[in-house]
Write a structure and sequence with these properties.
By secondary structure, the chain is mostly helical. The chain has three domains: 217 residues, Glycolipid transfer protein, GLTP (Orthogonal Bundle); 35 residues, no CATH class; 71 residues, no CATH class. The protein is 68% helix and 0% strand. It has 14 helices and no strands. This is Ceramide-1-phosphate transfer protein. It is found in: Membrane. One of its GO terms (molecular function) is ceramide 1-phosphate transfer activity. Belongs to the GLTP family.
Length: 342
């Protein structure tokens, strides 16, 4: 394989890894991945965190293939059967290296996750479903991001923004002009998908494993439990208690007592006594109403009439006495006679 990336060479290597008996030969599989590493390196140093991880995984497969137990690592299916029977998938000591936790099955599963990301990304570019930065980010969220911590996800999001537009990206594939590159991509995407759905041969199915390595090599199988399981409990258990326990008590216990206890006493006890005692001048007059007010004014007018009659009678008496004092003695009888005749 040449030093420069060639999409056609990658496709040829992966096609050679697919046997007629539905096996995947590891030597050709590793060779195809080495071509994809060149593609990652050509995208810039920002993709170095992915290419470096892929190189480490490939070195593990190469060492197992060239080790004392290399015959068991001829194909993916033979590797799965051997490691499951030897307990290596569960983290046992490897008989070839003596190291604990080295598993070709787990290593290849991680490579398949990255292969799934490239399959979704390149498929979206070939169908012109958006810009390369958008398609790469979307493919990453559907595959690798499920298995990366927050720091790596953040770095990946920044790296995807540095991707060029569609036509310059197609030219980076070294498959001719954009129309020819799209045609080559159309043949590469099905091959990448076939690599993930190859399963062990019939009759030699290994025992069940919690890693599900003997099942179809699709990353879509373990993803739905991770997305569906943690979200509903958080929405159901935390939000409703806060709304039901804190808000209604504040509205029901504090507001109504203030309205009922303070306002009515002020209106009933203070205002009527002031109007009745100061305006009418009496201590207890009963309830205040327009009818009572007219009765009180009638009393006042009658009282004024009595006072007016008394004043007039007093003045008449005074004037009469003064006339008696001023008249001559013989005129008193004349005055009396006039009054009597009248």
């Amino acid at each position: 394989m040449s030093e420069e990336f060639s999409l056609q060479e990658v496709i040829d290597s992966f096609r050679l890894s697919l046997s007629d008996s539905k096996e995947i030969f590891l030597d050709q599989y590793v060779e195809g991945w080495r071509g994809l590493v060149k593609l990652l390196n050509s995208l810039g140093s920002v993709f170095g965190f992915i290419s470096k991880d892929v190189v480490n995984k490939l070195s593990i497969l190469v060492s197992l293939r060239g080790g004392p137990e290399g015959a068991h690592y001829l194909s993916l299916q033979s590797m799965v059967q051997y490691e499951l029977q030897s307990g290596l998938v569960e983290g046992g000591d490897h008989p070839a290296s003596g190291t604990r936790g080295v598993s070709g099955c787990r290593t290849l599963l991680r490579l398949h996750r990255a292969l799934r990301w490239l399959q979704l990304f390149l498929g979206g570019v070939s169908r012109d479903e958006g810009t390369p930065p958008t398609l790469c980010s979307l493919a990453y969220s559907q595959s690798l991001s499920q298995h990366h911590p927050w720091v790596i996800r953040s770095a990946a999001g920044l790296a995807f923004r540095m991707l060029p537009p569609r036509d310059p990206f197609l030219r980076m594939l070294n498959a001719g002009e954009p129309p020819q590159a799209v045609e080559v991509l159309g043949g590469a995407v099905p091959v990448l998908g076939e690599l993930q759905f190859r399963s062990p041969p019939a009759g030699g199915a290994p025992p069940p494993s919690k890693h599900r390595l003997h099942d179809n090599w699709s990353v879509e199988t373990p993803l739905p439990p991770q997305v569906e399981t943690p979200l509903p409990p958080q929405v159901e258990t935390h939000l409703p208690p806060q709304v039901e326990t804190q808000l209604p008590p504040q509205v029901e216990t504090h507001l109504p007592p203030q309205v009922e206890t303070h306002l009515p006493p002020q209106v009933e006890t203070h205002l009527p006594p002031q109007v009745e005692t100061h305006l009418l001048g009496v201590s207890q007059v009963g309830s205040f109403s327009p009818g009572n007010c007219s009765v009180h004014w009638a009393y006042i007018l009658a009282l004024l009439g009595i006072l007016d009659s008394a004043i007039l009678a007093t003045l008449a008496f005074v004037l009469a006495n003064r006339q008696d004092a001023l008249l001559p003695p013989n005129s008193k009888d004349v005055t009396t006679g006039l009054l009597m005749s009248a």
